[in-house]
Design goal:
Structural class: mainly alpha
Strand content: under 5%
Mean pLDDT: 77
Oligomer: single chain
Helix content: over 70%
Number of helices: 8
Shape: globular
């Protein structure tokens, strides 16, 4: 899990983009959203995999579309934002809730997360034999293994964002970060 979270991918881009543009706290909340998404999949796998899979059915695609559209919107807001000389800031879509939701939706729409938690994870863990304590331990492992690397990326991106002090550099950073967010959203929509 740790190595998978360390490898750059869609979630790393989202955490880095939010932290560089809005500061470490937004990167932290994006990472928290990712971890909560992982917890959702763990709980689904342990306490109702077949029931929930049947209930969601084809509607799961709608969640992927919602996540992709949301990320494109966040990226567009970031792309259009005005630069300020006191660091990279956006004019909209910069609430703490939007950072958390970006991470959550990325994870819930991530086919690799679905494959791992709903396909591979049950093959390695006897889900029927797990106690509540075992479930808690699995969640703690996921928080550390997934959240730790994401926090490292948020910290590094925040420091990189602090280095950029002039308006031209911050405008370019906003466009790069916004482009990454929109690209992630397009990839999620394409895979859905």
């Amino acid at each position: 899990m740790f190595l998978g979270a360390l490898v750059p991918g869609v979630s790393v881009l989202a955490v880095s983009a939010r932290a560089a543009a809005l500061g470490f706290s937004h990167g932290l909340l994006t990472a928290a959203g990712i971890v909560v998404g992982d917890m959702v999949f763990i709980l689904i796998a342990i306490y109702g995999l077949s029931v929930l899979a049947d209930l969601l059915g084809s509607y799961f695609v709608l969640l992927k579309y919602a996540g992709g559209v949301y990320l494109i919107w966040l990226g567009a807001v970031l792309w259009r934002s005005k630069s300020k000389t006191d660091g990279v800031r956006v004019t909209g879509g910069n609430t703490m809730l939007s950072s958390f939701l970006a991470g959550l939706l990325i994870t819930l729409a991530d086919q690799k997360a679905v494959l791992f938690y709903l396909g591979i994870f049950p093959a390695f863990v006897d889900l029927a034999a797990l106690s509540v304590t075992d479930t808690g331990m699995i969640i703690i492992i996921a928080v550390v293994a997934v959240g730790g690397p994401k926090l490292l990326y948020a910290f590094m991106a925040d420091k990189a964002g602090l280095i950029l002090k002039n308006a031209r550099a911050t405008s370019l950073m906003n466009q790069v970060a916004g482009g990454m967010m929109m690209g992630v959203g397009v990839v999620i929509l394409a895979k859905a």
